[in-house]
UniProtKB/TrEMBL annotation, chain A:
GO terms for cellular component: cytoplasmic exosome (RNase complex); nuclear exosome (RNase complex). It is found in: Nucleus. CDD domains: KH-I_Rrp4_eukar (cd22525), S1_Rrp4 (cd05789). This is S1 motif domain-containing protein. It comes from Oryza sativa subsp. indica. Belongs to the RRP4 family. One of its GO terms (biological process) is nuclear polyadenylation-dependent rRNA catabolic process. Keywords: Exosome, Nucleus, RNA-binding, rRNA processing. The keyword Endoplasmic reticulum does not apply. One of its GO terms (molecular function) is RNA binding. InterPro entries: Exosome_RNA_bind1/RRP40/RRP4 (IPR026699), KH_dom_type_1 (IPR004088), KH_dom_type_1_sf (IPR036612), NA-bd_OB-fold (IPR012340), S1_domain (IPR003029), S1_RRP4 (IPR048565).
Automatic annotation (TrEMBL), chain B:
Belongs to the RNase PH family. Transmembrane segments: none annotated. The keyword Cytoplasm applies. InterPro entries: ExoRNase_PH_dom1, ExoRNase_PH_dom2, ExoRNase_PH_dom2_sf, PNPase/RNase_PH_dom_sf, Ribosomal_Su5_D2-typ_SF, RNase_PH. Keywords: Cytoplasm, Exosome. Residues 19-150, 153-218 form the Exoribonuclease phosphorolytic domain. This is Exosome complex component RRP41 homolog. One of its GO terms (molecular function) is RNA binding. It is found in: Cytoplasm; Nucleus, Nucleolus. It comes from the Eukaryota. Its main location: cytoplasm. One of its GO terms (biological process) is nuclear mRNA surveillance.
Length: 315, 242
């Protein structure tokens, strides 16, 4: 168990192992390891995809993962690996450097991603050409260690990865927590921005495994905020109500528990875990204790068993 | 000293000449690393951590932009040996073993798939009882596979020696200190290729072939074990992911 540095007592260890063993009984997929031969029908014209290579006419895996077949394409879906960008992915990144006309972001990829000054909306919302004054003021927009939400634009001819932030929903993220989980735990969905109204919290599940849990921000408020910026003091501007802060911490701890146990992160599961901690009267800090880990594992086993039963019943 | 009992054929620790020490591999032992592994061969215990592929930190070291840059750092903990000697970080033996591990892993990593990036391998010996560099290579292989770095084959390494007119597999510290020849082989099992071959002390040519074949057999056994560890870990992750 990777991040589980828990001090489980004997009862909790037995319960946790029983729960995880229950998950193993589900039919394991076609797992392969490095240098395993993947059986294919030689008569077909098989396309070798990601994670495979050709050795003496046979398809050999170059990664540890699960074999997937889509028509004639055979590829290995890797588990623990760095993020592989795809055009249109919504990602969360952290600024590490400001270079001429661009910011460099760390997004859990093999290279730093690049966000050009021309690829993002200016804070005042005006659509115009960027000038030298804008270049000089880049640090006022994003500075080092800021957390930014953006969209993958694609690879440029020099091989670098470019991002864009052309909508009001992208940009700087403030007043919240950034969590880093393995990228394989976040599935690609239509919706990666979630506004949890009951908590007044924004949840962004970045495809690269960076997850943002922060106070809700009304889109389009930036234009008015510029006018009011002079009137508000810094303290008032950064204030977050205590209740909202508790919600943010509880949701963040729910993400931590689920990722430590290796469960796929969906917004429904995160909310369910957070509400389970509320209904069990568990303090926010005790969500990272051994007992809640075991409870979460047991609840997930039951949920998947119910899901399996529904499928069997429907058949 | 009798390293191989002439009557029973057993070695000082109770093994037969072609028997390997107990192997134990564990992946995911360092939480913050992209890949990590703990590997034990008998009393030799090694921990490896892999970071990357990530952005090249020192652009000057980037020889070309078509391949990933592989760097390796090997260290022995001060408490890993019976004698506590504080060695400087860049001592000659560490530098040599770092280079050996890097070259061995570079032969297997598909560097052309990760251009303009850097892969850092950190290997630390926690307990040394002979065969440390072989254990380091095995630990590094496990860590690289755990990090999801594409590789041609599983690189494994094993040492063999020749004492009392008998080829011995997987020397321990006592046998290593006997002054006999010590052959270390790095091997790609599926491709049937040797990526590392080191030897100290003298050995006749025909005996060398026998000792090397024995070491290769050891590499194949280690590869089977490593494959089992990785497969079990992959299945577990997939089942828990759901």
């Amino acid at each position: 168990m990777r991040d589980l540095q828990l001090s489980l007592n004997q009862t909790q260890r037995v319960r946790l192992e029983a729960a995880l063993h229950e998950l193993q009984t589900v039919a394991p997929a076609a797992a392969v390891t490095v240098a395993d031969t993947i059986p294919v029908n030689d008569e077909d014209n098989i396309l070798k995809g990601h994670g495979t290579s050709d050795q003496d006419g046979e398809v050999v895996a170059t990664l540890c993962g699960v074999v997937e077949r889509v028509n004639k394409l055979v590829y290995v879906r890797t588990l623990r690996a760095r993020y592989k960008p795809e055009v249109g992915d919504i990602i969360v990144g952290r600024v590490i450097e400001i270079a001429p006309k661009r910011w460099r972001l760390e997004i859990n990829f093999s290279q730093d991603a690049v966000l050009m000054l021309s690829s993002m909306n200016l804070p005042d919302g005006i659509q115009r050409r960027r000038t030298a004054v804008d270049e000089l003021n880049m640090r006022t927009i994003f500075e080092e260690n800021d957390v930014i939400c953006a969209e993958v634009r694609g690879f440029q001819h020099d091989g670098s990865l470019h991002l864009q932030a052309r909508s009001q929903k992208y940009g700087k993220l403030e007043r919240g927590q950034l969590l880093v989980v393995p990228a394989y735990l976040v599935k690609r969905r239509k919706q990666h921005f979630h506004h949890l109204e009951q908590y007044d919290v924004d949840l962004i599940l970045g495809c690269n495994g960076f997850i943002w849990v922060g106070e809700h921000v009304v889109v389009g408020e930036n234009a008015n905020m510029m006018e009011n910026k002079l009137n508000l003091s810094a303290e008032v501007e950064n204030f977050t109500p205590l209740e909202t802060r508790k919600h943010i911490c509880r949701l963040a701890n729910a993400v931590r528990v689920l990722s430590a146990l290796g469960f796929t992160l969906t917004v429904e599961l995160i909310i369910e875990t957070a509400e389970a901690s509320v209904s069990s009267n568990i303090e926010i800090n005790n969500m990272l204790g051994a007992e809640f880990y075991v409870q979460t594992a047991e609840r997930e086993v039951k949920r998947r068993a119910d899901l399996l039963r529904k499928k069997s019943g429907a058949r | 000293m009798e390293y191989v009992n002439p009557l029973t054929g057993f070695r000082v620790d109770g093994r037969r000449p072609n028997e390997m020490r107990q192997l134990k591999g564990e992946v995911g032992v360092v939480a913050r690393a992209d890949g990590s592994a703990l590997f034990e061969m008998g009393n030799t215990r090694v921990i490896a951590a892999v970071y990357g592929p990530r952005e090249v930190q020192n652009k000057g070291q980037q020889v070309n932009s078509k391949d990933a840059l592989v760097r390796c750092e090997y260290r022995m903990a001060d408490f890993s040996t019976g004698d506590r000697r504080r060695k400087p970080k860049g001592d000659r033996r560490s530098t040599e073993i770092s280079l050996v591990i890097r070259q061995t892993m570079e032969a297997s990593i598909l560097t052309h798939l990760m251009p303009r990036s850097q892969i850092d391998i950190f290997v630390q010996v926690l307990q040394a009882d002979g065969g440390t560099r072989a254990a380091c290579i095995n630990a590094a292989t496990l860590a690289l596979a755990d990090a999801g770095i594409p590789m041609r084959d599983i690189v494994t390494s094993c040492s063999a020696g020749y004492l009392c007119s008998t080829p011995l597999l997987d020397l321990n510290y006592i046998e290593d200190s006997a002054g006999g020849p010590d052959v270390t082989v790095g091997f790609l099992t599926k491709m049937d290729k040797v990526t590392l071959l080191q030897m100290d002390a003298k050995l006749p040519m025909d005996t060398f072939e026998t000792v090397m074949d024995l070491a290769i057999e050891g590499c194949k056994a280690i590869a089977n074990y490593i494959r089992e560890v990785l497969l079990e870990n992959t299945r577990r992750l997939e089942c828990q992911r759901g």
